[in-house]
């Protein structure tokens, strides 16, 4: 994915070969943290979506 992004912005081939390894090594070292943050963000988005779906259906205090 990193080489594709670098090529899309017009980076030269030697720079892609030199730079992509650095980014890939960073994500390889911090893979567990990346997965944990991703799972946390997915859970947050599910909670926000559920809150938005249920908040429109809540009864007003005077209608209870």
Describe the structure.
The protein has 64 residues and is mainly alpha-helical. The protein has one domain. It contains three helices and no strands. The longest helix is centred in the last third of the chain and has 25 residues. The chain starts with a helix and ends in a 9-residue tail after the last helix.
Give structural attributes.
elongated; mainly alpha; 3 helices; 64 residues
What is this structure's SSE topology?
Elements lengths: L1 H7 L4 H17 L1 H25 L9
How many domains? The number is 1
**Structural class, from helix and strand content?**
mainly alpha
Approximate helicity band: over 70%
Low-confidence residue ranges: none
What overall form do the CA principal axes indicate? elongated
- The gyration radius over C-alpha positions equals 21 Å
Look at the structure and give the mean pLDDT.
80
> What sequence of helices (H) and strands (E) makes up the elements?
HHH
Strand content: under 5%
Summarize it.
This protein is elongated.
């Amino acid at each position: 994915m990193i080489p594709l992004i670098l090529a899309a912005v017009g980076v030269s081939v030697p720079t892609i070969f030199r730079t992509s390894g650095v980014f890939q090594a960073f994500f390889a070292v911090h893979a567990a943290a990346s997965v944990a943050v991703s799972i946390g963000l997915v859970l947050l988005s599910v909670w926000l979506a559920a809150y938005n779906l249920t908040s429109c259906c809540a009864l007003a205090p005077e209608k209870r």
